[in-house]
Prior knowledge:
Low-confidence stretches: 1-18, 52-87, 423-430
Domain Lipid-binding serum glycoprotein C-terminal: 270-474
Family: Belongs to the BPI/LBP/Plunc superfamily. BPI/LBP family.
Protein name: BPI fold-containing family B member 3
Shape: elongated
Strand content: 35-45%
Organism: Galeopterus variegatus
Distance between the termini: 42 Å
Keywords: Signal
Order of helices and strands: EEEHHEEEEEHEEEEEEHEHHEEEEEEEE
Mean pLDDT: 77
Amino acid sequence: MLGLWSLLLLWGLVTPCQGLLETVGTLARIDKDELGKAIQNSLVGGPILQNVLGTVTSVNQGLLGSGGLLGGGGLLSYGGVFGVVQELSGLKIEELTLPKVSLKLLPGFGVQLNLHTKVGLHGSGPLGGLLQLAAEVNVSSRVALGVSSRGTPILVLKRCSTLLGHISLLSGLLPAPLFGVVEQTLFKVLPGLLCPVVDSVLGVVNELLGAVLCLVPFGALGSVEFTLATLPLISNQYIELDINPIVKSVAGDIIDFPKPPVPVKVPPKEDHTSQVTVPLYLFNTVFGLLQTNGVLDIDITPELVPSNVPLTTTDLAALVPEALGKLPPGQHLLLSLRVKEAPTVMLQNKKATVSIPANIHVLSYVPQGTPEALFELNGVMTLNAQLAPSATKLHVSLSLERLSVKLASSFAHAFDVSSWEGEKLGSDPPNIFASNHSLFTVDLDVGIPLPKVLNVNFANSVLEIIENAVVLTVAS
């Protein structure tokens, strides 16, 4: 079996202003700061930076490499636009300063994205010698938010233009008429040269957004598939994604449980934070998958019990001597728990609990022998759930809070089991259930992932349990 019961379960069309999650999906709200960081990181840490600075190897010449649009034979090189001005032979872009990113979300449309950079041009001057120029350029683009053919959120470049700023002559001599030619030509060619940089940036960001659509294994029990439930929505502060988690068995069957009768009221998102809301439905569905696979069933044998735990026929007979006093003394007991119905999860009042209905069979245990049934209890275990986020998962650890049992059958006369339960376990008088509630635990090495949204790390997020949902909020 999978260990003793200290259940560690590794965990993830409404307008943004409504604050209601009408569907059962996982709601993700991505702050504009996270989008800005993703764009900036695509320039700093990835191949786009190498391409922009022209430092890629000859095997893979990028957009701005020596074999690309701006290199030898390119638009600004000898033989290109400037080829008509022989005095400026070989003028080409040699440097491109890492762009500064600024963006503005456009509600109902997408993003206004600006990249501010400096372009360095080198060539031969009309009087000989090295000619060096620097030009400030602002690339302005409007980007629409939509859904790709794969069903993932996607940013699409709709319009791009450049605004040429101050041009500086760093070295060499350039007569005023030729300086004007340089300026006019840059106005004509820079949009075609720098707007592809925007496309490359969006390609990297779209790969991150595309990670939302994924199929993640759930141990050997099945998998969780995340899909986009509705069109993405955009406000002036964040992008909202309604992500549908579909839990499937290992055979590929969808594990489906009743949806919540009322919508989840999602708390408002503060500025400069991102947010993920995990619905109660997902908790119930996952526990349903555990139950149907028998993972919650367990046999507690003497080998699994600490030596100080009272779990013998002598201890049992002492509890109800009039009914069980004739049991052979000193024999070990076997507790067999079988969960016949799906557990119920409750999320409310800042507390999470799980109720697991179980049949508890109590048998005398003889090594290498056949266990002998003593009696059977019908019980409900109520467990307190402690929730803790990691980078990509919501972990759930359960501890038994109370146990309710009724006698279902007995080899002896019927007896009262009310003293074997209680609101607070571990209280006097001790018994094999109340004082040893640590027996009722399960340890699972599986996890339910949170959706991947722009690599947002929820490890240090603030966790809030609301009515029928859990909300994770992380600063951008």
